Amino acid sequence: MERNLTLIALFAALIAALGLVPKLTLISGVPISAQSLGIMLCGTVLGAKRGALAVLLFLALVALGLPLLAGGRGGLGVFSGVTMGYLIGFPVAAFVTGLLAEMWRSRGGFIFPAVAALIGGVVVLNVLGIIGMSIKLDKTLADAALLATPFIPGDVLKCVLAGLITQGLLKARPGLVRA
Question: Which range, of 45-54, 79-88, 98-107, averages the lowest pLDDT?
Fold first, then answer.
């Protein structure tokens, strides 16, 4: 139990630390940041339940006003902004990524955690993010999806990194990886 709590807190801190990487805000108002890599790693390393709990802890800290999002943003207001769909999607993405990583763990290699990150951390997260942008920007889903396309190359790179990091952790500390 203590180990699980420690890992959940550690991965919430990892997501926060990845927000320190300088952000680049696109015309849509949604920043490109490394935090989605942390969401993917929550799923591939901690698994579905623990990964989602780590993300929920991170979001609770953001809601309390801690400036943990890319660019030093925090507080309840961020949950009603253009990034609301992405924020709502964070725990869902970690859960789906973790669920897939758990199902495919026995297959080994970096490709399966990378694919789990692609499905959960890119597809699921972007679907929810695009819906949120569509609502907040009063655009069609197609127009909002076009605004999200600049994220795709970086997201694919993050999936590869998530797969490689997860594979490295499995080799170095097999007991750490729960997914």
Answer: 98-107
